[in-house]
């Protein structure tokens, strides 16, 4: 039996909290119960002295959809597995709904898990796979039938009860995995790259279903992904990891428009980044002559080196001489068109500025602009309010 399958069964086989577990509730932990569902208090993990997770404080609120996003090896699965109890932290405390569970085994944490490889029992049909966690809890046959029927209905699999996992597509198998998780109403659902094995179209569809499910159930959900679009689309908040540390924790909007660092700006979406020097209030200079207005230089001194972020969709690009699109008073420059492409209803312009810098601009598809020949002169405009200074690292 695979390690993952064993883990799943351990979770699925959890009993209701016993006396021993309640005895572990510390007074301090109980006092923190309230809006916080999961609390990491200085939690770290080392493997033979190498840190997989540096000492981390993290709070997941009740009912929240929190994504753990980051490149490979950044510590996402380590956090998820520490919450699940399948990895013991090297230091720190974990509170679940105010209760210190640092030493509570996985089966007693009342969590649901969904894995990338579904981890279904191949010899059982869909009904029995979903019923499994209820059977190990000793629930009666009538209630099992009701709850399995309802869980399968929620994931759109009514009528598939008798199928074996191998007779189903990847997307359907993952729906079974989700039904098996929600059937026993866990207070927290942990999903580890649940859509990682599916193609883009199915991923998009199941993303919508997971989002709806989360809204309907109101359960706290922690979701590991390395796909930034998925994280931004699904989450109330995103916890972006880098090298075993939290790079930024915030709403998708905050990460996208107010990234805390160049790493965050780069990882989440596309960006134009300019090295610049602060030359006055809300004004910076790029290179020798180019002066830009920025949203704010508060907290920076004149002469300080900074990086300025402008998201491509905030830059309006048009062939030089064409009517300007709106009044984006503030910043402008000219350049030559290096490439134009049509991506999902947007036109993307890759531009080269006179000093050799590259710039990306994106806008709602514009037929006239799209027909602009490569090498033509383009004029770009954007507002100072959309030029954000990044904190220097
Ligand atoms: N059992 C282990 N023994 C030694 N090192 C480990 C072990 N498990 C994880 N690590 C290391 O800990 C770090 C964090 O791993 P983790 O699995 O949390 O990353 P991740 O962000 O989930 O990556 P991925 O997206 O590739 O799954 C990595 O450097 C990894 O090599």
| Total domain modules | 2
CATH topology of the largest domain: Rossmann fold
CATH superfamily of the largest domain: P-loop containing nucleotide triphosphate hydrolases
**Strand fraction band?**
25-35%
The CATH class name of the largest domain reads Alpha Beta
Strand neighbour order, sheet with most strands: 6-7-8-3-9-10
Which compounds are bound in this model?
Answer: adenosine-5'-triphosphate
Mean pLDDT level? 86
The biggest beta sheet, please?
6 strands, mixed
- Helix proportion: 25-40%
Cα(first) to Cα(last) distance is 46 Å
Runs in which pLDDT lies below 50 for 5 or more consecutive residues are: 1-33
Structure annotation, total helices: 12
Q: Count the beta strands.
A: 20
What is the second-level CATH architecture of the largest domain? 3-Layer(aba) Sandwich
Region (Disordered): 7-28
Protein name: Putative spermidine/putrescine transport system ATP-binding protein
GO molecular function: ATP binding; ATP hydrolysis activity; transmembrane transporter activity
Keywords: ATP-binding, Cell inner membrane, Cell membrane, Membrane, Nucleotide-binding, Transport
